[in-house]
Amino acid sequence: MNILEELKWRGAINQETDHDGLNDLVNKKSVGIYVGIDPTGDSMHIGHLIPFMILKRFQLAGHHPVIVIGGGTGSIGDPSGKKSERVLQTMDQVRHNQDALTAQMEKLFGQDGKFEIVNNYDWLSKLSLLDFLRDYGKLFNVNTMLNKEIVASRLEVGISFTEFTYQILQSIDFLHLYRHNDVQIQLGGADQWGNITSGTDLIHRVEGQDAKVFGLTIPLLLKSDGTKFGKSEGGNVWLDPEKTSPYEFYQFWINQDDHDVIKYLKYFTFLSQDEIADLQKKVETQPEKREAQRKLAEEVTEFVHGKEAVKQAEHITAALFSGNVADLTTAEIEQGFKNMPSVEVSSEPLNIVQWLVDATKIEKSRRQAREDITNGAIRINGERIEDVDYEINPANKFDGKFVIVRRGKKKYFLARVK
């Protein structure tokens, strides 16, 4: 099975400019293929990850990935998928973002063969206005540009000339990469089809109709309920571990619905057809074990954050499920309790009843606090406490930074020591 057949099986092909020509090309040689990303932020989220997962598959199949960081186009703004104008960023912010994205790409692509990261600022910034208009603007028909979905969808609310020219700039990128980096395929999301076909048209006008260049897009990924994939209740799921911790990242994947998990295994893992078929049977026959979800979480977390992050996420998950939080490190507490209810407390030792009522307000009254303690419903740092005279000393555990309270079977609270 070649790379295109595999992508079709995975449900990862939306449109191709020329299927037969593209199929012949990837079967004959190692091909240069590129995906671009504009530095509109300093981290990718999992929605951005989708085309780069496909690019990674091309790399593993022996092809040559080229990643374009849009230092030039990122200062302009891509209208694709947007209902209004982007807010222009300062060049300092663009440079900061492109450095952060470059580091993420190096982590994702650096282990498996050769790849390139280039910045379109390097060539777009050298174009004068007159060169842009004479050499490229003359080759683009305004009527054709207006009919592209990326522009047509914005005509009612309006689109600036700046964003209107974006598809010309992206086309120049493709031409530059064709000439200087031996790139023959551009890959992108479904919303990039108009930009990609503008690029293939430009190359054919400049280099001739025999130029072997192709476009390939990926379908918009939807959840089984019809909503767009990529966000959790807290917003975007980021690849930056400072924005979304590896534990939170792992939890996002392990909590996926049975109706979606096989589709995500096809998209986001490098498991074989047989391995995924086996997991699909387990979803159908033993859904309560959630083996497919665990495998999905393990595979994607390892790809993005590494094996140690998977071990840590699994350790935190097991500790929270069992209640054995005493085994967690301070760093693991930071991850696992990031979004749990928390309060700030003094570092001074205090009687448990006073601490639960006055210091943290975890309990509503002293009477309720004493009742919960004597009934064995209160655990402090994983230890069941049944003595109402027990003294809580925040310095005793977790480097003096945290006290973890569990009330009942599942209700956790985090006290952060001032």
What is the CATH H-level superfamily of the largest domain?
HUPs
Low-confidence stretches: none
Report the count of strand segments.
15
Largest sheet: 6 strands, mixed
Number of domains: 3
Helical coverage, percent range: 40-55%
Output the radius of gyration.
26 Å
CATH third-level topology of the largest domain: Rossmann fold
β-sheet strand percentage: 5-15%
GO cellular component, one term: cytosol
Protein name: Tyrosine--tRNA ligase
Catalytic activity: tRNA(Tyr) + L-tyrosine + ATP = L-tyrosyl-tRNA(Tyr) + AMP + diphosphate + H(+)
Main location: cytoplasm
Strand-helix topology:
Elements: H1 3-9, E1 15-16, H2 19-28, E2 32-37, H3 46-60, E3 64-69, H4 91-109, E4 116-119, H5 121-124, H6 129-136, H7 142-147, H8 149-152, H9 161-164, H10 166-180, E5 183-189, H11 193-207, E6 214-218, E7 231-232, E8 235-236, H12 246-254, H13 258-268, H14 273-285, H15 291-305, H16 307-322, H17 330-336, E9 342-345, E10 350-351, H18 352-359, H19 366-374, E11 378-380, E12 383-384, E13 391-392, E14 402-407, E15 411-417
Helix pairs in contact: 10-11, 12-15, 12-16, 13-14, 13-15, 15-16, 16-17, 18-19
Function: Catalyzes the attachment of tyrosine to tRNA(Tyr) in a two-step reaction: tyrosine is first activated by ATP to form Tyr-AMP and then transferred to the acceptor end of tRNA(Tyr).
Subunit structure: Homodimer.
Main location: cytoplasm
Question: Would you kindly provide a brief summary of this structure?
Answer:
The protein is of the alpha/beta class.
